[in-house]
Amino acid sequence: MPRGGKKGHKGRGKQFSNPEEIDRQMKAQRELEANGGVEKEEEKSSGSDDSSSEEEDVNKKKSGVEGLIEIENPNRISQKSKKVTELDVNAPKELSRREREEIEKQKAKERYMKLHLEGKTDQARADLARLAIIKKQREDAQKKRDGLKKEAEDSKSKR
């Protein structure tokens, strides 16, 4: 791969900006910054009025085609900022679907464990039956060992 900057697209020539165009854009940028600073100061001074928030929505600069076309979309929700005094902290928080499912899953697991400890689930019954069989096998093995020990002692005492 050759080094050096990116090459232009195949057969196209390079495009250079016109100096007059650059000057015009810079002047427009300066004017915008100068006007923008004045508007921000006016908004700060009138920010305490309730009616000013409505005016801000109307005077808000619309980007792109928004300023040219009136949109009547019932599904479009405009973002409105709430004031701290309007927020209700004590209102119940709505859980997302994932959070609800996670809570339901935890509750179901707790119910199952409670029933399992009481021995009411199929798995608990199977476990208890298996434990009973193992216990019986161990008791039989212990009896057999005890019997072998007695026989060994009896055989030693006869000698």
TrEMBL record:
- The UniProt regions of compositional bias labelled Basic and acidic residues, in chain numbering, are 21-47, 94-105
Report the residue ranges that make up the Casein kinase substrate phosphoprotein PP28 domain in this protein.
73-150
Q: Where is the composition biased (Basic residues)?
A: 1-13
Q: Where is this region: Disordered?
A: 1-105, 137-159
Q: Which domain of life is it from?
A: Eukaryota
Name the chain's protein.
Answer: 28 kDa heat- and acid-stable phosphoprotein-like isoform X2
The record lists the organism as Salvelinus namaycush
The root-end lineage is: Eukaryota, Metazoa, Chordata, Craniata, Vertebrata
Q: Which gene encodes it?
A: LOC120029812
